[in-house]
Design brief:
Strand content of chain B: under 5%
CATH superfamily of the largest domain in chain A: P-loop containing nucleotide triphosphate hydrolases
Number of strands of chain A: 10
Strand order of the largest sheet of chain A: 6-7-8-3-9-10
Oligomer: heterodimer
Helix content of chain B: over 70%
Number of helices of chain A: 9
CATH architecture of the largest domain in chain A: 3-Layer(aba) Sandwich
Number of domains of chain B: 1
Strand order of the largest sheet of chain B: 1-2
Radius of gyration of chain A: 17 Å
Order of helices and strands of chain B: HHHHEEHHHHHHH
Radius of gyration of chain B: 19 Å
Number of strands of chain B: 2
Order of helices and strands of chain A: EEEHEEHEHHHEHEHEEHH
Number of domains of chain A: 2
Strand content of chain A: 25-35%
């Protein structure tokens, strides 16, 4: 069953066209990577899904065309976006950040047990639960950003450059937690990542973007083997 | 001794006037991230609408209640049709827009209701209560009690409720708020509406004391801004305590420091701000914002 389908999606910031025909298919419980060089349109593809950029084409989620809806309505359908730069709420505490993530939910008990789950998934946050998000380290903020997103109990998680600016061991810890989350929760994922090797630890397949177009799609195993792809799009 | 205590009591009473406006400033800042310089002007407009209803024979309590509701709607409309155009851009621009709005509202009030002083009846009696040689009017007591209640409500709103948390989240990061399903635009309207409604209560409380003119709250706004900086932008209790401090200290300084006297007492809150900010840049009660890079 396909959960999310992008068909020939275009997007522009004002007069500047950034996406020029991106197609992507995410199965239920699947995880798909978006790879490509800087400026290829990876972030914009995620923004097209979460409705924070003007788009054309078709974006079908769970059988419905969701293009042109408001971002909060898209979120309410069960799509949680972890934006590039993390987007945590700096002046709110870790717990408050997680509670904001659960804004649309009414089940008090479920929210509390999911906060516990987040703290179990990201033990670093345990000691910082009362700290303001702005006082966290980069890695902790990234963990909090993922935690905030999963507090909404999404069906699809959009992850943008979760390793950006992190030390290699921290980035690996973040991706280990994401892989565990995937196995335990079955949340479908679209993973944008510069570091292809990290992405391949989570995704089953990936699409490669070049100047706003999908140019190649394959399973992780197929793409991993392609030397020229690695050189051209993934920076060796 | 009696004079001294009388000065303190009077200071608390004027401090409550500054506190009322300061609380509205804190509310709109927590909910939108902006300092709204038009807050005083909007409160004056609310007081005029109550005054107009009174002149049409509407009872006082009803007129004030109506002005509070009207102000909520007006605040929401200002956000929806004016501020929204500027919220996504440079915050400096938005702040300058609120200054423009203050000038506009003051001008419109003057045009509609003239610049003459209008008498505004008080909710509370002017009779004084005398205790240990200190006399204090029931009006001052009433005003102070209302301010304390409003302060506690605001503190509870932001610290303990889902709406308060959502308002703060939207002010800090509207995009992430939308990603969590928060209806950002509606919450911004609610934030402005609530602040304007609170301003209307403030206007009705202080209009009897200051007498109603279009510029009635210009002076109070300056003190309220001082209280907001002194108390910390994120703390309702902090700004009220700061407003009282300012009210008391300026009274004491006017009488006991010959150099200052009544002419220079307006400088007192700013000397206080200077001293406090050197020691505690986040204000007396503000939370320290730490940014790690």
């Amino acid at each position: 069953m396909t959960l999310l389908e992008l068909e020939d999606v275009t997007a522009s910031y004002g007069p500047v066209q950034v996406l020029d025909g991106v197609s992507l298919s995410v199965p239920e419980n699947g995880a798909v990577g978006i790879l490509g060089a800087n400026g290829a349109g990876k972030t914009t593809t995620l923004r097209a899904i979460s409705a924070t950029v003007r788009t054309g084409g078709r974006i079908v989620f769970d059988g419905e065309d969701i293009r042109g809806r408001r971002p909060d309505k898209v979120a309410a359908l069960g799509i949680a976006h972890v934006p590039e730069g993390r987007g945590t709420f700096g002046d709110l505490t870790v717990r408050e950040n997680l509670r904001v993530g659960a804004y649309l939910r009414k089940d008090r008990k479920g929210i509390e047990s999911d906060i516990e789950y987040c703290l179990d998934l990201f033990p670093n946050l345990q000691d910082r639960i009362r700290s303001n998000a702005s006082a966290l380290s980069g890695g902790e903020q990234q963990m909090l950003a993922v935690g905030r997103a999963i507090m909404s109990k999404p069906r699809l998680l959009l992850l943008d450059e979760a390793s950006l600016g992190l030390a290699p061991t921290t980035a690996k810890a973040v991706y280990d937690a994401i892989r565990r989350l995937r196995i335990e929760s079955g949340i479908a994922m679209v993973v944008v990542e510069q570091n292809a090797n990290l992405a391949f630890t989570v995704v089953d397949s990936a699409t490669v973007l070049e100047t706003g177009r999908s140019v190649l799609t394959g399973t992780s195993a197929e793409l991993r083997g392609m030397d020229e792809i690695r050189r051209a799009y993934l920076g060796g | 001794m009696a004079t001294f205590i009388q000065l303190i009591v009077d200071g608390l009473s004027t401090g409550s006037v500054y506190a009322a406006i300061a609380l509205a400033l804190v509310l709109v800042h927590q909910a939108t991230g902006l300092i709204n310089f038009a807050q005083g002007g909007m409160a004056v407009l609310a007081a005029y609408s109550a005054w107009w209803l009174l002149s049409r024979g509407v009872p006082l309590v009803l007129a004030i209640s109506a002005s509070v509701l009207l102000s909520f709607a007006f605040g929401a409309v200002v956000e929806r049709w004016l501020m929204r155009r500027f919220e996504r851009g440079d915050p400096d621009t938005a702040v300058v827009v609120t200054i423009g709005l203050l000038t506009l509202i003051t001008g419109v009030c003057g045009w509609l209701f003239t610049y003459n002083n209008q008498q505004f009846p008080s909710l509370f009696s002017l009779d004084a209560v005398t205790f240990l040689g200190v006399s204090v009017s029931q009006r001052s007591i009433g005003t102070t009690v209302v301010i304390v209640v409003v302060m506690l409500l605001l503190q509870a709103l932001f610290a303990g409720t889902k709406l308060g948390l959502a308002l703060r989240a939207v002010a800090i990061n509207p995009q992430s708020a939308a990603f969590s399903g928060l209806p950002v635009e509606r919450l911004l309207m609610v934030g402005w509406g609530l602040a304007a409604a609170l301003g209307a209560i403030a206007g009705a409380l202080v209009a009897p004391q200051l007498t109603l003119t279009p510029g009635m709250l210009d002076n109070a706004l300056v003190y309220a801004l001082a209280a907001v900086i002194l108390g910390g932008l994120s703390s309702p209790i902090g700004v009220v305590v700061a407003a009282w401090m300012i009210g008391v200290l300026e009274n004491l300084a006017a009488v006991y420091v010959p150099l200052i006297g009544y002419d220079l007492k307006v400088a007192v809150p700013f000397i206080l701000i200077f001293v406090v900010l050197v020691v505690r840049p986040q204000g007396l009660f503000g939370r320290k914002t730490v940014v790690r890079v």
